[in-house]
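Run log // design_07
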C-alpha cells in the first residue's frame, strides 16, 4: 500500500486567499516544485517532483474549511 500525504488544511495564510487551497498549491506544499506528467483536470493527475519521483493525486469529498476547494490525496505513482 502506498504512503498517503495528507495536506494540513489548518495552515492557512489570509494573504493568499482561496487560491492557497487550489490543487496546484496543495501539491506544491506537499512535494515541492513539480512538473505535470498527466493532467486529469479537476479530477486528478500525475506529477513528477524534482527528484524524479512521480505522484498521483485526486480530490477527496472533504472540503477545506469555508472554501470551495476539496482536500486532495497524494500517493506515490507505481
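design_07 sequence
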Amino acid at each position: 500500500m502506498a504512503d498517503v500525504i495528507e495536506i494540513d488544511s489548518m495552515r492557512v495564510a489570509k494573504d493568499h486567499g482561496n487560491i492557497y487551497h487550489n490543487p496546484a498549491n496543495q501539491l506544491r506544499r506537499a512535494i515541492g516544485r513539480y512538473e505535470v506528467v498527466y493532467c486529469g483536470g479537476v479530477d486528478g493527475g500525475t506529477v513528477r517532483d524534482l527528484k524524479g519521483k512521480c505522484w498521483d493525486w485526486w480530490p477527496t469529498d472533504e472540503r477545506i474549511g469555508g472554501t470551495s476547494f476539496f482536500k486532495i490525496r497524494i500517493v506515490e505513482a507505481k
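Residues 4-76 form one domain.
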